[in-house]
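Q: I'm building a small set of examples for a reading group on sequence design. Run inverse folding on the following structure and report the sequence directly after it, with nothing in between.
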C-alpha cells in the first residue's frame, strides 16, 4: 500500500475510482444517519476539484482503498460556520488554521487498520505541521456517546504524529414531529397557540 496527495482532481478516470470508493464506503453510514452525510457525485466532484481541499488516498496496487478530504478554508464549506470560528478561535481563524475533515472512508473489503494508520500518518502530519485546528464531526452511528467512538480513534491516531488535544465543540440532535394518521381533536384544533403552549 502507498499514499498519494491530491488537490484539484480533474482527471475523469481518477475521479471515477475515488467516487466508487467513496460511495461503497459511505453508503452504510448514509443509510443509518438522518443527516445528509453522503454527497452525490456532482457534489463529490466539486469537493475533490477545489484547490483549497487536500485529498489523501491510500492505494492497494491500482485501487484506492481509503481516502480523506481536508478542507483548508472553512469559508468554502457549507458544513461549518465561519462566524463561529471567527468569534471563538479568532487568531486561528485569521491565520487560516481552521481546517475541516470533510470525510474519511475506507473500503470495507480493505485492511481497515493498516489503511487508517497510513492515511492518518500522512494527513495528520501535514495538519500538525500547519498548526491546524482540525475540526471534524461524527454521526451518532459512529459516535454514540461523548467518549470513545470515532473521535477517540482519531485522537489516538493524531497522537502518533505529535502533541494534540481533543476539544469537544458541539452536539446536535435531530427530532421529528410525526403527524401521520393522527386524528386532530376538535377542541385543540381551534385553541389559541398561547393556550396550547401553556398547557404542555
Amino acid at each position: 500500500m502507498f499514499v498519494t496527495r491530491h488537490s484539484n482532481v480533474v482527471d475523469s478516470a481518477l475521479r471515477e475510482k475515488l467516487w466508487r470508493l467513496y460511495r461503497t464506503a459511505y453508503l452504510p453510514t448514509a443509510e443509518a444517519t438522518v443527516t445528509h452525510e453522503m454527497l452525490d457525485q456532482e457534489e463529490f466532484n466539486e469537493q475533490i476539484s477545489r484547490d483549497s481541499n487536500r485529498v489523501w488516498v491510500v492505494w492497494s496496487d491500482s485501487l484506492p482503498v481509503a481516502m480523506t478530504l481536508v478542507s483548508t478554508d472553512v469559508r468554502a464549506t457549507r458544513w461549518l460556520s465561519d462566524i463561529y470560528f471567527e468569534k471563538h478561535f479568532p487568531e486561528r481563524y485569521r491565520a487560516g488554521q481552521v481546517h475541516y475533515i470533510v470525510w474519511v472512508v475506507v473500503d470495507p473489503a480493505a485492511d481497515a487498520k493498516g489503511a487508517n494508520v497510513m492515511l492518518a500518518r500522512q494527513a495528520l502530519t501535514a495538519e500538525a505541521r500547519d498548526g491546524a485546528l482540525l475540526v471534524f464531526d461524527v454521526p451518532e452511528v459512529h459516535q454514540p456517546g461523548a467518549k470513545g467512538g470515532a473521535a477517540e480513534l482519531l485522537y489516538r491516531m493524531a497522537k502518533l504524529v505529535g502533541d494534540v488535544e481533543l476539544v469537544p465543540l458541539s452536539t446536535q440532535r435531530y427530532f421529528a414531529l410525526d403527524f401521520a394518521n393522527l386524528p386532530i381533536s376538535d377542541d385543540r384544533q381551534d385553541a389559541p397557540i398561547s393556550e396550547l403552549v401553556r398547557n404542555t
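Residues 85 and 117 are 29 Å apart (CA to CA).
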